Recover the amino acids of this structure.
């Protein structure tokens, strides 16, 4: 395929990605140094009472002909970032020995970062191990059982994430069926939505439930390509079942394990739907939810675009740090191919 | 084949424990979804009862509204069996649409699914209630003539008729339809170009797409909001379509590229030797064998658009909203248990189409998931 035909085919998609992905990214970077401020004008108002008159000056926002508040964009430097990162509070927290973590968790951004990173790193091993175990287990079933099992397994993966989170929430909320069961088991009152850590546990559990099918399908497909000769050879050499798994099957699946990890880290770093579904924002927020919160209009209809942009830029930096090792791996592989 | 036979020679203890693991997982995977469906047809007292059996049987619902009688349940079971049988026999029933191996072509497949759906619909929605009430009238004292379980469709009626949820369904269909069509059109062209050109620039485009795939969606929406408000796109569904197509594009070109790479390049080269242009070769020679790949990619695009909460919640409001964000309106006000049950009914309604998609397209979804991973 010559160069011109190539560009003709790739052109529309590339145009779309440059205009609607790269473009907004530059926009976000610029906006993160700006703020929308209302124009104020001072008005002198004379108010008279029977005992004399007083003049007071008040600042009122300028409105245009339609009565909307006129805003202008001002360059604010690092203000948006400072407001998010709150360096003074961080310094104060670090100077409070023993209490540093609790104080840091008071700052919304650091709390969101803590939750997001924990969320990604705790769910990753669970998803990998459970997905692999399930793939190994389903592989031992008879063919007639495999089809229906895969069908049921796909359901948690296919369900709308917000709806899936809501489904788990209804099992636990108030005297939901599982909370009632827990109460009977522990013989004490349980309120799953009254403190942060139980909500966090439910969110972690929900995400593992949602993603295990994906890991399962990939690993299951990979298991079909394990060479029987190698397993047999290992058996003849006296390898135990565990050693076969450890030294033959897992190395064979390694590229797939890297692939699942890459996709899962990308997706779980973006954790958002769980916070909505569990209405968790009072206790736990994620980086993406933080950006979202700034974008939702407040009572007077204003959006904090500047703050949202700064939060978005910081989130992106996090993505890059998280993915660099894995991306370098993919990059090398593609190069070789 | 051989690998499987080796794995089959497992000691009984391993076989039992892995069967137990699968059984446990099936319960865990199904329970939250199945429970949602059970709750959606009960009155509040039953739906939120602390006892599992009370929720399943729904005594309060049965006393106040009633439910299916033994006849109804038997007839519904028979209907399901009939539909499954019709589906099993599809290769015989639609033999004129089958190829030499007995596989149905696209038209035959669609026809067979329509027949199954029609059979199921007519038997459960028309024949079952009619025959059921006739039998109940004939044997009013029989053990099967009374409601066995409490069940009601009133929450679904409230959602779809009183709260006009169909408006949101229409919005969702419009958004998903737009996203799938545009994504696949430009994605297929790019996927084909990238698959047929192994140059350095193609490689960099793919790497950039991979990085773009990792971006949080809220980041992109932050970039869009000011210009969208400026140009009057805010609050219009076309805005959501644009954002979702952009978010979806990196994934689409990766997946379609790997499907195109499976089609041998000699096929289009042969067509071009015979005088076809590149575009003609693409459209008349490569695309006809690419439909499975396009359908699979289309399914994933559909799910991205259908499941989206964030983008629609930020760019649309009120009656223009799609279904998933619209469901959250039940949580913004003070909610009674009745409201919660309406939300549950809405949630079940949203999940229904996804359930059908897995039922019909299970093989395509699995192939789509493994495509990127196994073939690279």
């Amino acid at each position: 395929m010559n160069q011109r035909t190539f560009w003709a085919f790739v052109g529309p998609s590339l145009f779309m990605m440059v205009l609607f992905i790269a473009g907004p990214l530059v926009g976000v970077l610029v906006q993160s140094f700006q703020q929308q401020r209302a124009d104020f004008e001072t008005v002198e108002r004379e108010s008279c009472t029977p005992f004399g008159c007083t003049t007071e000056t008040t600042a009122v926002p300028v409105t245009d002909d339609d009565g909307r508040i006129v805003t202008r964009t001002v360059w604010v430097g690092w203000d948006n970032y400072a407001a998010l990162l709150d360096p003074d509070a961080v310094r104060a927290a670090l100077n409070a020995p023993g209490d540093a973590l609790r104080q840091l968790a008071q700052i919304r951004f650091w709390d969101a970062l803590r939750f997001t990173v924990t969320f990604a790193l705790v769910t990753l091993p669970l998803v990998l191990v459970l997905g692999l175990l399930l793939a190994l287990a389903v592989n031992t079933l008879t063919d007639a059982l495999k089809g229906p099992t895969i069908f049921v397994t796909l359901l948690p993966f296919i369900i709308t994430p917000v709806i899936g989170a809501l489904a788990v929430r209804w099992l636990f909320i108030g005297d939901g069926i599982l909370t009632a069961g827990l109460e009977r088991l522990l013989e004490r009152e349980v309120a799953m939505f009254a403190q942060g850590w139980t909500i966090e546990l439910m969110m972690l559990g929900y995400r593992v439930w949602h993603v295990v099918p994906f890991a399962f399908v990939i690993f299951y497909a990979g298991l079909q390509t394990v060479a029987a000769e190698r397993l047999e050879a290992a058996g003849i050499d006296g390898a135990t079942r565990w050693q076969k798994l450890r030294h033959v099957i897992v190395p064979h699946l390694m590229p797939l394990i890297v692939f699942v990890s890459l996709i899962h880290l990308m997706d779980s770093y973006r954790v958002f739907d769980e916070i909505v579904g569990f209405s968790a924002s009072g206790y736990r927020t994620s980086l993406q939810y933080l950006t979202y919160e700034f974008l939702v209009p407040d009572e007077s209809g204003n959006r904090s675009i500047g703050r949202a942009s700064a939060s978005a830029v910081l989130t992106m930096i996090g993505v890059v740090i998280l993915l660099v090792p894995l991306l370098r791996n993919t990059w090398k592989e593609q190069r070789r191919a | 084949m051989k690998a499987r036979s080796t794995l089959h020679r497992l000691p009984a203890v391993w076989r039992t424990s892995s069967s137990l693991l699968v059984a446990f997982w099936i319960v865990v995977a199904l329970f939250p979804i199945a429970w949602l469906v059970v709750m959606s047809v009960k009155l509040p007292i039953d739906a939120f009862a602390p006892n599992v059996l009370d929720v399943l049987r729904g005594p309060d619902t049965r006393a106040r509204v009633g439910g299916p009688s033994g006849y109804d349940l038997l007839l519904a079971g028979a209907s399901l069996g009939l539909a499954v049988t019709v589906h099993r026999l599809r290769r015989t029933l639609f033999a004129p649409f089958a190829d030499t191996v007995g596989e149905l072509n696209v038209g035959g497949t669609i026809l067979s699914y329509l027949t199954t759906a029609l059979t199921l619909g007519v038997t459960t929605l028309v024949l079952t209630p009619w025959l059921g009430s006739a039998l109940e009238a004939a044997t009013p004292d029989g053990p099967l003539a009374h409601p066995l379980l409490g069940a009601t469709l009133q929450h679904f009626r409230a959602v779809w008729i009183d709260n006009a949820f169909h408006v949101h369904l229409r919005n969702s269909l419009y958004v998903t339809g737009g996203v799938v069509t545009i994504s696949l059109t430009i994605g297929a062209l790019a996927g084909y170009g990238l698959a047929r050109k192994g140059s350095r620039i193609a490689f960099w485009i793919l790497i950039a797409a991979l990085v773009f795939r990792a971006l949080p969606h809220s980041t992109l929406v932050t970039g869009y909001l000011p210009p969208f408000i400026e140009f009057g796109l805010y609050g219009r569904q076309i805005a959501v379509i644009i954002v979702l197509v952009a978010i979806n594009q990196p994934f689409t070109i990766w997946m379609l590229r790997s499907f195109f790479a499976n089609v041998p390049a000699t096929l289009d080269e042969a067509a071009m030797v015979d005088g076809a242009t590149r575009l003609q070769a693409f459209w008349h020679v490569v695309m006809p064998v690419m439909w499975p790949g396009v359908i699979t990619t289309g399914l994933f695009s559909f799910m991205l658009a259908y499941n989206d909460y964030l983008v629609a919640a930020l760019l649309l409001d009120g009656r223009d909203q799609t279904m998933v964000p619209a469901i959250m309106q039940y949580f913004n006000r003070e909610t009674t248990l009745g409201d919660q049950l309406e939300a549950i009914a809405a949630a079940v309604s949203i999940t229904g189409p996804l359930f059908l998609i897995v039922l019909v397209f299970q093989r395509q979804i699995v192939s789509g998931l493994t495509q990127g991973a196994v073939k690279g």
Chain B touches chain A through 107 residues (CB under 8 Å). The domain at 165-375 of chain B is CATH 1.10.3720.10 (MetI-like fold). Residues 325 and 349 of chain B are 14 Å apart (CA to CA).
